[in-house]
């Protein structure tokens, strides 16, 4: 009658693996403290039994319950393959840049327009186009805002149709990511590039690749003796160190506390000193951290920084509350991105610790971003962090803590958050940069907090539930803050609460982001032979091929209707008018991409990010999907479905006019079953 959480201590128990994908577990109470345990596979065969399992009360407070929700990015060495450079190109106006990368044998184009003209004149479309974003190159300015504006224009031109279909754009950086435990990041602007391109990868799968070279490496470190770049097939993010490719994976962070980390009660603590400056302090998270510093860490003085100072909503109440707790509070009206204003504030209130929690959201798909919208997001994150980093270097008393509030968007690349991902990737890189220089620094790449803030108040929480990230309760978030900002923690931690059921579902569907593949068991899949737009191995196309032609459109219409209802949050598909425009139905740009993803998952087809804009009604979209899938029918083999059945559920297959075990009643049910592992 509800969830049962039981901590077990096992002894003399043998687990016999049967290959089952799910287990039926039964606990039968025998005494107040013991239970009989049995687990069987779907066929009813025993997998594990225990005559007596001893239980005890589980005492978990809210704060400690989520302390395993702390992760970090590990760069894993991987095998590599050398591909021919015959059909590759490099995009740079500077000949020496391509030469320095070992790409002198490749065709070189000054820009995308030059590449387009060559294609119009009959040149073969390259399979990959390398774009150097290196320190000192045309696109590698040390000013991250300047670099990102240039990159945004380049990517927008590429996805608008100027980039040839099937060609991947490879962004090449140098020293932009920290691979080893003690590595720094030299090119901070290049790190911001990684954040923006990760978001581009989420919006445009299989169109972009990130490739980082070591900061002091020459071309031989990433290229073989023939000059051909070493690339890992299908990898979307690669870092080369000492000639070895590495790929990023999110893993649980394990802390090994030192004596300096541990308080008398055994909890980890951090040394914030006696005066902490907090940016974004009158925002929801800033205020929570301010209270926590006083009540948990005993910080006696706080400098609360915001653009409006005492005029900010709730500022006076926060000041009174903190003062009542015994803290000395200064509310300062200062934009930390204004270098002169911040310098004046630091001269009057030199801190011992800094927490940079300021930030602004301006979400939108890459194609809708403008330089002005990009700068709006970058300024409070990047400019303020750079000012804090540089202006605190010569304080009378060195800092003991420098904490940056980043976002998991920089690690995973959220759809519609390219600017925000870029800004926070810069913060993560700055933490690595400071640590390598012997300075204190921690960047916390937060997931979603359950506490609604000014940044997340417009967020549709019902749609958050469809992602793999669940909200962090405040008590857990503050406990994770303590752990991640302790002396023994590394430069960057990712405090985020994942919904394991969603991760598992994504793994089954084959849609789990590569960075998260270490968190769940990923099913082994047979290699696909699909074409660029989906192919004969697509379960969707194969099922449609078996349907009578007169019934195919109806099946696709029902699929589109159901997926539209799921994205819009309707209880039934009947609420979706197939003839209405998507914007009239309530779709925004992010929901359009979400629908594209849902349909891509359900059909196995590779669909463009502009799907909803190109086909503005559900009916038009269904026509497109049917036409796209129908183009693969000629090569599609005949479909037969084999399943174990019992005598009570006979099966007869004539196209899709059939009864099928497991409650299958529509083509969507069948291709979903196939996608989850059934033989087709």
Give the overall silhouette. Answer: globular
| Mean of pLDDT | 79
Number of strands: 22
Radius of gyration using CA atoms only: 28 Å
Give me the side-by-side strand order of the main sheet.
Answer: 7-6-8-9-10-12-13-4-21-19-18-17-14-15-16
Number of helices: 20
* Helix content percent band: 25-40%
N→C terminal distance: 37 Å
Low-confidence stretches are 1-20, 58-63, 224-228, 264-268, 460-466, 526-537, 634-668, 670-677
Backbone structural class:
alpha/beta
Please summarize the sheet with the most strands. Answer: 15 strands, mixed
Beta content comes to: 15-25%
Structural summary, described in words:
By secondary structure, the chain is an alpha/beta fold. The strands form 4 sheets. The protein has a 15-stranded mixed sheet, sandwiched between helices. Strand 15 (301-306), helix 6 and strand 16 (328-333) form a beta-alpha-beta unit. Helix 3 (144-162) runs parallel beside helix 4 (188-203), helix 14 (539-546) packs antiparallel against helix 20 (667-675) and helix 15 crosses helix 19 (618-630).
Characteristics:
single chain, alpha/beta, three-stranded antiparallel sheet, globular
């Amino acid at each position: 009658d509800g969830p049962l959480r039981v901590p077990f201590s096992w002894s003399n128990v043998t687990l016999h693996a049967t290959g089952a994908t799910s287990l039926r577990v039964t606990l039968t109470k025998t005494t107040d403290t013991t239970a009989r345990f049995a687990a069987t596979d779907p066929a009813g065969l025993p997998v594990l039994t225990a005559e007596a399992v001893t239980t005890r009360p589980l005492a978990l407070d809210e704060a400690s319950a989520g302390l395993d929700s702390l992760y970090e990015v590990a760069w894993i060495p991987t095998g590599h393959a050398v591909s021919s450079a015959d059909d590759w190109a490099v995009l740079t106006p500077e000949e020496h840049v391509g030469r320095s990368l070992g790409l002198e044998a490749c065709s070189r184009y000054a820009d995308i327009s030059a590449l387009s003209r060559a294609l119009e004149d009959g040149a073969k479309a390259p399979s990959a186009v390398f774009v150097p974003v290196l320190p000192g190159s045309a696109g590698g300015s040390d000013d991250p805002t300047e670099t990102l504006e240039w990159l945004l224009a380049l990517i927008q031109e590429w996805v608008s149709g100027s980039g040839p279909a099937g060609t991947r754009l490879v962004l090449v950086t140098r020293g932009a990511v920290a691979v080893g435990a003690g590595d720094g990041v030299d090119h901070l602007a290049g790190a911001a590039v990684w954040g923006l391109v990760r978001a581009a990868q989420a919006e445009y799968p299989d169109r972009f690749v990130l490739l980082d070279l070591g900061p002091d490496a020459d071309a031989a470190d990433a290229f073989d003796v023939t000059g051909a770049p070493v690339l890992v097939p299908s990898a979307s993010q690669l870092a080369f160190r000492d000639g070895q490719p590495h790929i990023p994976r999110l893993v649980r962070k394990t802390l090994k506390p030192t004596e300096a980390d541990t308080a008398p009660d055994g909890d980890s603590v951090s040394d914030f000193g006696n005066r902490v400056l907090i940016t974004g302090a009158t925002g929801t998270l800033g205020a929570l951290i301010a209270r926590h510093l006083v009540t948990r860490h005993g910080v006696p003085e706080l400098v609360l920084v915001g653009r409006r100072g005492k005029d900010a909503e709730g500022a006076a109440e926060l000041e009174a509350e903190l003062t009542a707790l015994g803290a000395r509070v200064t509310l300062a009206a200062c934009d930390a991105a204004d270098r002169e204003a911040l310098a004046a504030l630091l001269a009057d209130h030199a801190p011992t610790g800094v927490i940079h929690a300021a930030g602004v959201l301006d979400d939108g798909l890459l194609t809708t971003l403008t330089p002005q919208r990009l700068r709006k997001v970058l300024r409070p994150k990047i400019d303020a962090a750079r000012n804090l980093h540089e202006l605190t270097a010569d304080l009378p008393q060195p800092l003991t803590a420098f904490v940056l509030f980043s976002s998991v968007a920089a690690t995973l690349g959220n759809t519609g958050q390219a600017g925000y991902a870029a800004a926070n990737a810069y913060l993560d890189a700055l933490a690595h940069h400071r640590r390598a220089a012997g300075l204190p620094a921690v960047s916390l790449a937060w997931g979603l907090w359950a506490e609604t803030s000014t940044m997340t108040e417009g967020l549709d929480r019902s749609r958050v539930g469809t992602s793999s990230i669940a909200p962090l309760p405040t008590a857990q978030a503050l406990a994770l803050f303590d752990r991640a900002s302790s002396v023994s923690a590394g430069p960057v931690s990712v405090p985020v609460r994942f919904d394991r059921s969603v991760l598992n579902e994504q793994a089954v569907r084959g849609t789990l982001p590569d960075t998260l593949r270490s968190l769940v068991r990923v099913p082994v899949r047979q290699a696909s032979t699909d074409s660029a737009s989906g192919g004969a191995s697509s379960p969707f196309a194969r099922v449609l091929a078996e349907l009578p032609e007169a019934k195919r459109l109806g099946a696709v219409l029902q699929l589109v209707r159901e997926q539209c209802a799921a994205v819009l949050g309707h209880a039934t598909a009947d609420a979706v008018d197939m003839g209405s425009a998507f914007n009239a139905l309530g779709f925004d740009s992010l929901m359009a991409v979400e629908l594209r993803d849902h349909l891509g998952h359900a059909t196995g087809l590779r669909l463009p990010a502009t799907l909803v804009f190109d086909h503005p009604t559900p009916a038009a979209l269904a026509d497109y999907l049917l036409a796209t899938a129908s183009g693969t029918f000629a090569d599609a083999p005949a479909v037969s479905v084999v399943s174990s059945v019992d005598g009570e559920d006979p099966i007869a297959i004539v196209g899709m006019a059939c009864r099928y075990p497991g409650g299958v009643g529509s083509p969507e049910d069948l291709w979903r079953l196939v996608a989850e592992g059934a033989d087709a």
